[in-house]
Design a protein that fits this description.
This protein has a single domain, classed as Methylamine Dehydrogenase, Chain H, CATH 2.130.10. Helices cover 0% and strands 56% of the residues. It has no helices and 13 strands.
Length: 134
């Protein structure tokens, strides 16, 4: 991964997460970056202050999209080959639920007004809507 200073357009850091990175999300404080590490089926947790991986969280097969919900501190990861979304508690950094969705979910987005998560499913031309009760 490469960190670029947006003010100067210069490279600040380059580091490896040990896998093919697919998507990233920041926590609400900007302290941690969550990176879908596709080839190792894990979510990399990166400390943004020093650009080091501090933990890997196992998720489903071929993680792709990542969203952080500041309202409940949860991280959502689409698992493309499993047709699921992993729900991760950012304070414990553990998977608290795995939600089945449609076929081949890759991306996802959160409506911050309603806390509804929208997951388009590529192979069955559907959209799954997830309401996290936490």
């Amino acid at each position: 991964m490469t960190v670029i200073d947006g003010a100067t357009d210069t490279v600040k850091a380059t580091f490896s997460i040990g896998s093919e990175a697919r998507a990233i999300a920041f926590d609400s404080n900007g302290k941690f970056v969550y990176v879908a590490a596709r080839n190792i089926n894990q979510l990399a947790v990166v400390d943004a202050s020093n650009n080091t991986v501090v933990q890997y969280i196992p998720v489903g097969r071929r993680p792709h999209g990542v969203v952080f919900n500041p309202a409940n501190g949860r991280i959502y990861v689409t698992n493309r080959n499993d047709g699921t979304v992993s729900v991760i508690d950012s304070s414990t950094r553990s998977v608290v639920a795995t939600v089945p969705v449609g076929g081949f979910p890759r991306f996802l987005d959160l409506n911050r007004r309603t806390d509804l998560l929208y997951v388009p499913n590529a192979t069955d031309a559907s959209v799954s809507v997830i309401q996290d009760e936490e």
